[in-house]
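Sync notes, pocket subgroup
Present: LS, DG
LS reminded everyone that the earlier model was apo-only. Rerun requested with zinc ion included. Inputs:
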Amino acid sequence: MLRYDPIMQLEFFGAAGEVTGSCHIVRVGGRQLLLDCGMIQGGADATARNRRAFPFEPAAVGAVVLSHAHLDHCGRLPLLVARGFRGPIYTNPACADLLPILLRDAADLAAREAERANRDLARGEERVEPLFAPEDVDAVVRQLRVIDYDTAFEPLPGVTVRVREAGHILGSSSIEMWLSEAAAEGAPSAATTRKLVFSGDLGQYDTPILQDPFAFAAADLVLMESTYGDRRHRGREDTARELGAILAQAARDGGNVIVPAFAIGRSQELLYLLARHYGEWHLARWKIFLDSPMAIAASRVYWKHPGRFDAEATRLRAGFRGMPPLPNLVLSESADESRAINQVRGGAIIIAGSGMANGGRVLHHLKHNLERPECHVVIVGFQAPGTLGRQLVDRLPEVHIHGRRLQVAAQVHTLGGLSAHGDQEQLLRWYDNFTHRPPVWLVHGERAAAESLAAKLRERGARATVSQPGLQIDPAGLPALAHDSPHP
Ligand SMILES: [Zn+2]
């Protein structure tokens, strides 16, 4: 029997028609590779969907190439490993450093969720097992293979990959991939090579700290994210000015400033913004607390990778001889250090998780400051319905924290413009770098956002398709547009 399977195929599995659960299957010469293996997040059935069987045999997957460490891109790796995947997981050095922090936190959360479910178990009901265990995370970490940015490597015969900057969070990458049928065993001599570019998650062009997304010139097909494919963000400079004005007002009022922030990305950006405007905003009069062990761990990973910084961050770091350039930053790691902040009545900027104030240390700070009119709360990220953060954004006059009712007297501000994703204009700018208008499959977006971006791409003469789970395409059947090689 001929072992060679001539099919070159791309199949969409997760983040097709929705934002989370990023996972795409690449088949070439009878071998399979996954681009990401993300967790489905949000929605009542998310946990159940995450537990479902993969539409492929995990043991038959040859390798995974991971774009970045956000859970919706890497969160099902522990399950993949637990279910039999033994191959290498390739990613860049910064992502490899962030990944264990995120996955260990997710394992803790899964354990707590299972414990809660088991507490309310009716008689005869089966016990709930956590989605994955810490040992599964250890196995993922053992299977990691670190590859440098901008360096070609061969994860499988017939597949050459190079990862490029995506400017979304530290260690985020876009992936370019040359698929070649001829390299597979028993293949006909006429080589068919097609180049696929997977955007991963794309950041805004002027994202603090990080370099801009890499400008690709050539591809035969493009997989592109579309999270904000129908949106325009507020400018970053306007957003920074707004934050400066809030801090000036807060200084006059004499209270504290509480900022619920995600541990990875947003917390580091905020510290960086404060550092950049340190003199201009007279920040020496404040004490700045980063009150989150996870954010502190993630920050250390950020500071460890200055090679990924943009020119401005590189300059700031050099001027201060370290990161972050904030002399009055206090990292509160222990619970005691965190509790001590509760005694501070004014002059503190407190950045703490969780980002949507639905748990974590920020709840204690809100409890101590929400009822005081001289205090300010600054919301810097998306707040899902049902979270305390959302209630604050919606200006509810009273909220509950740890069973206590609180009148909201503090001033609440919502800062737009700090999104980690490019908006419609920036996504189009990224696509416009391609010289031959390669066909695009849109992933990682709600249907309306993806459709809106597809319409804009079609106006540019591109063939744009909104992907669906289970949709299969044959790259070899597409015209060859890219004639670049991974080995210049
Ligand atoms: Zn992401």
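DG: The mean pLDDT is 92.
LS: The pocket of zinc ion is lined by residues 68, 70, 168, 201 (CB under 6 Å).
Action: DG to write up.
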